């Protein structure tokens, strides 16, 4: 069996049911790993805002007893029973702090559980730790004055990405089995790619959020795991209509079924391929890793079709910041209140979004969204899914603010968000997107690709994602405790 700290959830559940492994054993292994490998808030991985070990141990003992009873009675068990899950800090736990890295929120306590936490716990999952984010989850690096710097286990000089950086770091370092994430411009998929894990951005509303910001049609909460099967498992637990979120839809708890032979299931599937979405300069190592995935897919019998998108970098930035200027930036300003000590990246984000709101009002932001959605639909008209890189770069520096923009493959971009090919699919947020690993760059940091589906077609992205996972070799997980 794989080392317990990196054991996938599907295998762990099978071992629990067969009484070959106890939930207590798994949790104890993860806690020991955290204590050895997480490190301090400046130089370590630093993936957590807090740990809940005592409560988690009590829950693991109850799960152990439940498996013993179920084995005797030959009864089924809850879908996540005994599985440790690290929760992104923004996913509130009633009675626990909900600060989002903001000084204005210091000491604030949540009154209710977030819907995804409620569902994970009802399914038997054990929240043993809460993961770091940048302030208000508004950056693709993960550092803040409140929680320090979160680093990538594969290369401690690099960020694990953001905003779900703590989640990706915890999974890669073997400090959790599953993790929750959220995504408004790539905050699940960016860290998944940088940490060699899997992240899923579901169609808008498929996974319920917490009002009022659940009404933001760019956003979405979701799962991260180390495998496609694990990510599908957690997505199935999270998904479905919830009374607190009137944007949520669909049945609850329906399993996402993966093919028995994921490589054979690729035969004949039509995959549109864009190396840059028409709008993003991409570093050569990322291009090479993506091309390798394409070659493997073609060898497996998939039909890969080059597609052209008419998007430009200016168009993408204008579109997303018109939206953020109407919703996210005002929300951040309201939440910060009179506190002016925001992180430099948060100040820059608010300033850029405010300027964008002066240029484009809400109605015009709808027009900009519709143009990108129409162009994406036209490009995907003859294919089952679209494939493209997740990140344009092989790494971002862990503690940088990128106030001067970023240089990518000989091109300077004023905003470092150009380093990620993710935000167009928040504009087209009814499209499901699965981020899966594509290889490893020379700096030791993983690379990744996105599998983009037609609106609401979740099955196709998991089918292709499982095939890519089966085709692309994986390196051993990073050893931080040597």
TrEMBL record:
GO terms for molecular function: transferase activity. It comes from the Bacteria. InterPro entries: Amidase, Amidase_dom, AS_sf. Keywords: Transferase. The keyword Transferase applies. Residues 25-461 form the Amidase domain. Pfam families: Amidase. PANTHER family: GLUTAMYL-TRNA(GLN) AMIDOTRANSFERASE SUBUNIT A, MITOCHONDRIAL, TRANSAMIDASE. Belongs to the amidase family. This is Aspartyl-tRNA(Asn)/glutamyl-tRNA(Gln) amidotransferase subunit A.
């Amino acid at each position: 069996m794989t080392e317990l700290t990196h054991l996938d959830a599907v295998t762990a559940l099978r071992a629990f049911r067969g009484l070959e492994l106890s939930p207590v054993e798994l949790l104890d292994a993860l806690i020991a790993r955290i204590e050895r490998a997480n490190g301090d808030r400046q130089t370590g991985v630093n993936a957590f805002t807090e740990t809940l070990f005592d409560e988690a141990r009590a829950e693991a003992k109850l799960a152990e007893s439940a498996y013993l009873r179920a084995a005797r009675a030959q009864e089924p068990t809850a879908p996540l029973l005994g599985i440790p899950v690290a929760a992104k800090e923004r996913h509130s736990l009633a009675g626990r702090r909900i600060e989002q890295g903001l000084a204005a929120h210091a000491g604030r306590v949540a009154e209710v559980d977030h819907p995804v936490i409620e569902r994970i716990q009802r399914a038997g999952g054990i929240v043993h730790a809460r993961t770091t984010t940048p302030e208000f989850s508004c950056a693709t690096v993960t550092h803040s004055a409140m929680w320090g710097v979160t680093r990538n286990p594969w290369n401690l000089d690099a960020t694990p990405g953001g905003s779900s950086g703590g989640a990706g770091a915890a999974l890669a370092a073997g400090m959790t089995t599953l993790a929750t994430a959220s995504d408004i411009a790539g905050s699940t998929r960016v860290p998944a790619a940088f940490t060699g894990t899997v992240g899923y951005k579901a169609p808008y509303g498929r996974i319920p959020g917490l009002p009022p910001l659940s009404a933001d049609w760019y956003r979405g909460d979701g799962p991260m795991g180390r495998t496609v099967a694990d990510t599908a498992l957690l997505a199935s637990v999270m998904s479905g209509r919830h009374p607190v979120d009137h944007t949520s839809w669909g049945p609850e708890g329906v399993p996402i079924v993966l093919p028995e032979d994921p490589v054979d299931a690729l035969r004949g599937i039509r995959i549109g391929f864009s190396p840059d979405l028409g709008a993003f300069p991409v570093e050569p190592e990322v291009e090479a890793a993506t091309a390798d995935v394409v070659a493997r897919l073609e060898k497996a019998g998939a039909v890969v079709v080059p597609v052209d998108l008419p998007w430009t970098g200016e168009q993408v930035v204008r579109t997303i910041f018109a939206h953020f200027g109407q919703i996210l930036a005002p929300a951040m300003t309201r939440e910060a209140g009179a506190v002016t000590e925001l992180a430099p990246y948060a100040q820059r984000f608010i300033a850029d979004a405010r300027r964008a709101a002066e240029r484009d009002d809400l109605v015009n932001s709808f027009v900009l969204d519709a143009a990108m959605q129409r162009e994406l639909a036209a490009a995907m008209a003859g294919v089952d899914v679209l494939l493209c890189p997740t990140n344009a770069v092989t790494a971002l520096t862990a503690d940088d603010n990128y106030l001067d923009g970023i240089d990518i493959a000989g091109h300077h971009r004023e905003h470092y968000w150009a380093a990620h090919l993710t935000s167009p699919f928040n504009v087209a947020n009814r499209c499901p997107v699965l981020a899966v690993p594509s290889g490893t760059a020379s700096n030791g940091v993983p690379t990744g690709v996105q599998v983009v589906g037609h609106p609401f077609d979740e099955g196709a992205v998991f089918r292709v994602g499982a095939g890519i996972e089966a085709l692309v070799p994986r390196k051993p997980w990073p050893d931080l405790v040597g």
